[in-house]
Amino acid sequence: MRTVCSLWNSCRLQRSAARLRAAVSTIRAHLPYTAHLTADGVRLTQLRVLSASVPEEIDGALRADLGIDGHGTDLPTVYGSAEVTDGSYRNIPVERASASFIVRGNDVTIDFLSLKLPNDTDLGIEGKITGGSALDLRFYGSHADLSLLNGLDDRLSFSGLSDFSGVVHGDIHDPRVEMQVSATNGDLLYQPFDSLLFRAEGSLSGIGIHDFSMERGGREVWLVNGTIGFTGERRIDLQIDTIGARMEDVAALVAPDQPITGNIDNIIKFTGTLDNPHAVGYVHFYRGSYAGAILSGMDGDYFLDNGIIRVQVFHIYSPMVDMVLNGTINTLGLLDFDAEVRDLDMKRFEHKLPYEVSGHGVFNGKVGGRSPVRFFRGELKADAITMNGVELRGIHSFAHYENGIIELDETGFHQGTDGSVTARLRYDTATRAISGQMQIERMDVQALLALANQKEDRLTGQITSAVRLGGTLDNPAIS
Question: Residue 81 forms beta bridges with which residues?
Answer without folding.
Answer: 65, 100
